[in-house]
Specification:
By secondary structure, this protein is of the alpha+beta class. Helices cover about 30% and strands about 20% of the residues. It contains six helices and ten strands; from the N terminus they run αααββαββββββαβαβ. The protein has an eight-stranded antiparallel beta sheet with strand order 3-4-8-6-9-2-1-10. The chain has a two-stranded antiparallel ribbon with strand order 5-7. Strand 1 and strand 2 form a beta hairpin. It is globular, with a radius of gyration of 32 Å.
Amino acid sequence: MKRKKSYIIGSTLFIIAIGLMIFGIHTLSKSTGASFTTMFNPESSLNQSTSTNEKPVNLPQLTNEVSEDEIEVHITTSMGLIKVKVFPDLAPKAVKNFITHSKEGYYNDTIFHRVLADFMIQSGDPKGDGTGGESIWGEPFETEISSQLFHIRGALAMAKTNAPVSIGSQFYIVQNPMDVSASADPAITPDDILEAYISGGYPSLDQHYTVFGQVIEGMDVVDTISEVETDSLDKPLQEVKIESIEVIE
């Protein structure tokens, strides 16, 4: 009789224990169901890490083709022809200033007054000493920064002083041919631009100066100009001139 009573008690406790376990599992799954889905659903996990709304960034400097929204310009120098394309949609003021000056002959016979090998060549000052030149509006204008344009080798950009609004007519072409990819900021630099920096450029200028164009032919001429002998002020001892600039339309 005692053995039968013990068996009944034991069976009852076992049934109660099973019931508690089922109830506990059901409650746990209700409270953490979303976490289980996130952790164990591969498709859900992939959707969280990759945004379907992200669009590829257009990086127009990485191709030599001239698209419909770009303008081709031929810069004839005393050392050869440099062909560039400019980006009116990304740097409208700089492009309008440069194109207007070019068409009006403003840059004709100006010299490259500042030349630094493994850095850049600079021109656009009618005075020829780096202190002159003005915009088509007769007053300086502000820097235009684009997340699509960078100081890779061959970049065409506007020179300025340290003043916030100081762009006039002077411009420069980035010449440095050495690998500078390690010094580029990966937080603001697309992977394709980081790769381009392997071939040269000057990333420390990014986000500080207006890039408005890119050399598409004639970097050998830019290199030749960069190699001329200069004085203590980085001015070529033998004049290197812009003979003319033609806007291709």
